[in-house]
Specification:
- The chain has helices at residues 2-9, 20-51, 53-71, 76-92, 98-102, 106-123, 132-141; strands at 171-174, 181-185.
- The protein has a domain at 1-94.
- Strands 1-2 form a two-stranded antiparallel ribbon.
- It is 58% helix and 5% strand.
Length: 188
């Protein structure tokens, strides 16, 4: 390996082979060294590509959205919101679990959701000390909704049909003037 590295990089002076078996050995050793070097460099390249797969996928989606908005003449404010959303997704590395759940049987999917979400539900004041059966049933009803900072979730006068649990970040209730903070709901 050492000799192959020296030969590939053309550093150092190696003695020239005199016999045909020495030539064969030099060729074989050089090929093994080149192959090993290619495998190492290729593996590093794959690791870098895989670590950037999420970012690359999101950027491809972003390019599609930009193209769509441009061809449909979407107003600038709405375009800004869409770009803000993708920036938020990129920074928070949100993973869409719908494709993963699609391939799992119902029982395994529910058990996995229970494993992921039961601690969060047990931390919510409303459900502290609740029966495990209730938590089990609630987990099946959970739907993930992702909101960006500044998104309006509901307004005064809207009929509430959902309950929101803040898993990360915070929820701020604003007065009608959109400047006065009425209260803030933290995680949980």
């Amino acid at each position: 390996m050492y000799w192959s590295a020296l030969t590939i990089t053309t550093l150092g002076e190696q003695p020239e082979p005199n016999m045909s078996y020495q030539n064969l050995y030099e060729i074989f050793d050089s090929l093994v060294g080149i192959l090993l070097f290619a495998v190492i460099v290729g593996s590093v390249g794959d690791m870098v590509a895989n670590s950037n797969a999420y970012t690359s996928n999101l950027r491809n989606q972003l390019d599609g959205v930009k193209l769509y908005m441009g061809t449909r003449n979407v107003e600038q404010l709405l375009q800004k919101k869409a770009l803000h959303y993708f920036g938020f997704m990129l920074n928070n590395r949100h993973v869409d679990d719908k494709p993963i759940k699609r391939y799992l049987p119902a029982k395994l999917k529910h058990t996995m959701q229970l494993n992921i979400h039961q601690d969060m539900l047990k931390d919510v004041d409303l459900f502290k000390g609740s029966d495990d059966k209730l938590i089990y049933e609630l987990v099946g009803k959970l739907k993930l909704h992702l909101f960006c900072p500044g998104d309006e979730i509901c307004k005064r006068g809207d009929h509430g049909k959902e309950m929101y649990i803040v898993k990360s970040g915070q929820l701020t209730a604003m007065a009608e003037d959109n400047h006065t903070v009425l209260f803030t709901i933290p995680e949980g």
